[in-house]
């Protein structure tokens, strides 16, 4: 019996990670997992999608077993605009946007020059909508306003900055350990 299915392994990092030395027990288990996965990958007859954002950590044997790789580039301003507009238009159709034109103008002036991915855009919209809904419990409108968008954007931007700073510190500490 054939299933005729496509296999998706989301966040497959642990299966793709470079085998190596380290903590003897954890390293042995991980090495065994990667070795078995390599064998399965080598002889798998169907279509398998693996998602990861840790390409730099791939085991050396992985790339030769991947037939097609898809890399997602940073979004351009037009692409960000299309994603924001898609979300905003859906909310506007439901009567949930109060300052549509003001929001669009603010996005043009301040947001599209930032590096945002689709998830961050979705998070900005859902957080802003949550703020609008929370305000409705205090006698305010539950409609999305520019102020909600600005607050959500500010939060995402601050987190992104903090995260990038921490990643740089981590990379620097790793480099010092190697030397």
From TrEMBL:
One of its GO terms (molecular function) is ATP hydrolysis activity. Residues 5-71 form the ATPase AAA-type core domain. Residues 75-171 form the AAA+ ATPase lid domain. Pfam families: AAA, AAA_lid_13. InterPro entries: AAA_lid_fung, ATPase_AAA_core, P-loop_NTPase. Gene3D superfamilies: P-loop containing nucleotide triphosphate hydrolases. This is AAA family.
